[in-house]
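Why do we care about 3D structure at all? Because function follows from shape, and shape follows, mostly, from sequence. That is the central idea of this module. The next example makes it concrete: a single protein chain, its amino acid sequence, and then its structure expressed as tokens.
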Amino acid sequence: MPVINRVADLQPDIMAWRHDIHQHPELMYDVDRTAEFVAQRLREFGCDEVVTGLGRTGVVGVIRGRKPANGGDLKVIGLRADMDALPIEEETGLPYASKVSGKMHACGHDGHTAMLLGAARYLAETRNFAGSAVVIFQPAEEGGAGAAAMLKDGLMDRFGIEQVYGMHNGPGIPVGSFAISPGAIMASTDSVDIRIEGVGGHAARPHMCVDSVLVGAQLVTALQSIVSRTVDPLESAVVSICEFHAGNARNVIPQIAELKGTVRTLKAEVRDLVEKRIHEVAAGVAQSTGAKIDIVYERGYPVVVNHAEQTEVAQRIARDIAGESNVTSMPPLMGAEDFAYMLEARPGAFIFLGNGDSAGLHHPAYNFNDDAIVYGTSYWIKLVESQLAA
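And the structure:
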């Protein structure tokens, strides 16, 4: 089945909503304008319930079908979009470019929000399903764990959600195509902060010092042995130290060096192993150099794990819309997504929608592809009508 004709008719409106959101990007939980924009549209569509303030600034709409239930097990399905932008200066030159200095929708959340609004409008008009569709608009995906905040506020139980589905655009995937696989599809993400205290002094007398820069350099190199020599080569892990701060003069060996990095894994046991080895490697470097090394290791988003049954459902719906050849399997990505929390709470699946040959995510020249709107919106609608069929 191709895209829904009514969705093609709605595309100009959906595109206009996206452009409006794109021009007014907001970060983390501070998405008040976007949340109000979403809530206002949902009320205009005639949603049966519109709830704001869930997870601080999240918005939820409930749309009840007009068909009688057939006695099936599934009665409530959740569809999630994210609303927040990124602290990046936009470099697209688009007529609807960000009007807010230092902020832009560089990950396509404007498109995600607009497509789910389009689906909500269609579903509220037609109600050609049994049970309830719950549309979830989440803040703070970009590092703030907004999904966890909404869950803490009772998202699943309050609305009786039994299955939950998410979607993200994918640069490099052709427009009109989808990609999805069962199991681990995106990585967990942890942060590691390292403070090295040596003995500072004059650069001409290194033998009288414990050089925190040298210790830090040794530690950065040593940490890479975890991935190359501790983790099974058939498993996946990333340890990246991306910040190194030390010193402020060319002739002074600094007393303190601070390093910050990220750890990505796809399995709980590998996650545990990497965390353990980071502490052990740091202790070894500290002992061999005489420096004091303190580590703060914080766990972030868990692994995004697609449930097998719901992944099959998502694949089938995507094939109905895009055709068999335009729905492909994909290897896991080492990027992270807080939709993982929702998939820990309920069975569901996370799918990627083709964004074409665009700049990559989190790039200042990135832009969500409006040509993808009809495919993503049709997917949401057919997912509801299929899963909540009378």
